[in-house]
Amino acid sequence: MSSFTGNHILSVSQFDREAIELVFSVAQSMEPYAKRQKRTTVLDGAILGNLFFEPSTRTRVSFGTAFNLLGGEVRETTGMANSALAKGESLYDTARVLSGYSDIIAMRHPAAGSVAEFAEGSRVPVLNGGDGANEHPTQALLDLFTIKRELQFNNKTIDGLHIAMIGDLRYGRTVHSLSKLLCLFKNVRFTLISPKELAMPDYILAAIENAGHSLKVTDQLEGNMDADICYQTRIQEERFPSQDEANKYRGKFRLNQSIYTRHFQSKTVIMHPLPRDSRTEANELDNDLNLNPNLAIFRQTDNGVLVRMALFALTLGVENLVSQYEKPVIWYSNKS
Ligand code: NCD
To answer: pTM (2 decimals)?
Structure first.
């Protein structure tokens, strides 16, 4: 990726290590604004079209928050039934229309490839907020940013990392995008734990092997795993052919404090893209881990704002102007 300005962000395949480092350094520089120590109006007058055709809380709201924190305005369309897609309009036409109303668009849709199809009709940059089971590039970037930060506390780097990914690796787009990004690094060890039917797709396994990484695929949590990161996932019930089918796998791989103590190191960082399914029959990440200092799930969600601010600033070409448009924060804030 030679330049971000004016470009879509559809897949992690667009990134090299240099581009990732740039995103991370801009994300870091956004911290005072996200923490309300100061504010900026660099995107004053700009409009984000936030189009979410699938359920979302944190991705949708953090895209909107990130844009607001840069001084821009947000227009939302949520739910397929509330848009003209329900009347048979093509993604291309919707994109032609909505790109006339916005300077940039963030979009989530249940079909793999849909956001790229939409982008073909768009006259403004489009950021993929998740297209079916395919990709979730902004989540992968915030996950990687979190991994880098968490490992720094343990004097480790992404090169040489050992990551265990657990759960629904077949339909989980976050683990697909994160694995692809990790292929840009060196000597990564992957331990992939899932029911056989929910294993990581072959094309991702091939990418991991082509990158020269070490790979262990298993359907059991066994022994002490020596992992730096334990990345837990939710059974993606909405992508299964039926609820009965999804029910077979709910609760198969739970993580609670005692399972964590048995299988992981005392410093293993616990991640999850969220939402965690807290219903009794699933409960893949138990509340008894909430006070475990290695639980990074809410640091991930906070980092999501920084990374999305960085992507907006870079895509709209204002990453070096943010501080020029600074203003003081005059209200009470306890975020710092
Ligand atoms: C994930 C998603 O939508 O792919 N959530 C998110 O964006 N943070 C994972 C999930 O829904 O399980």
So the answer is: 0.97
